[in-house]
Amino acid sequence: MNASPDVSPSAPTVPPVTPSASGADPELLSVIIPLYNEEENVARLCEAVFGALRDMARPFEVIMVDDGSSDGTVARLETLAPSYPELTVVTFKRNVGQTAAIMAGIDHSHGAIIVPMDGDLQNDPRDIPILLEKMKEGYDVVSGWRKDRQDDALTRNFPSAVANWLISTISGVHLKDYGCTLKAYRREVLSGYRLYGEMHRFVPIYARWQGAKITEIPVRHHARTAGQSKYGLNRIFKVLLDLMVVKFLTQYETKPIYIFGGMGFLLFLGAILSAGGGIALRVIEGIHLNRTPLPLISAMCVITGMMCILLGLVAELLVRIYFESQDKTAYTVKTVIRGKGGKG
What we know:
Layout: E1 25-35, H1 42-54, E2 60-66, H2 73-80, E3 87-91, H3 98-107, E4 111-116, H4 128-135, E5 141-146, H5 153-171, E6 183-186, H6 203-209, E7 214-219, H7 234-252, H8 257-285, H9 294-325
Parallel strand pairs: 1-2, 1-4, 2-3, 5-7
Antiparallel strand pairs: 4-6, 5-6
């Protein structure tokens, strides 16, 4: 009889591993799978994933993160764990979301290459070697594209196509399928920032922002055969709001005064135009200013413009505190080349 894994509260826990290339095993592949109420799929998932990975003849680990499931997913994992020595299971106390689950998997992983994938068997683990082979061409991120997607056209495929177009247009990073979880990353690409909300799908944008080389290749996609989809139309609105945050962070993280100050000056310009329009009406038409809303509009533009500039100054202070307290820089070094006499 297989011994059950130690999941008691007193058992020693593995400390989270900060996503850093320096402490990663260069040969190890880390596959991260977030799970939520996948009791019916988890046994077949383990069989498919471990079967595909063991055929690669490469050291690997699989981190499955249970995102506060309310069914028997964790119990099934406890039963299956002894049969898979490469498996690590991380469980949350409550449901937090897919992005947090992926982040926890990254924190508990040790490989130089990280591959997240969905736990509903719609992603095919047999595509992982294809992603890694493409990565050998010098890419830092290889993103999966569900070219023949097996989802409902109206409720899933069409909204996804619209979201992908918006994300590509606004971010300038053109991918056909941001929503495909199956991607391969070099660990250093994931260093230096944390993921929140629904931002796991925007990692390629952050990666490109840091100078990473990105490509996209078609991958297989299967219809869900068990369990229920956790995605709804409400997620589209969350994605769009997160996209606004990403756009701000990627362009104005180090100089927020540019966006707030720009808004302030536009409002000041509006105040000048309103005042000028009021004066013109008084001189040309003889209309008294108190009979028009222009003085009120002008005053509101001035006040709001001042508030925007003050917000920009506060944001500048916060950015400086952030970089200095975290010992971070506003740049990312790729390589340093020195001559024979170089020092340091």
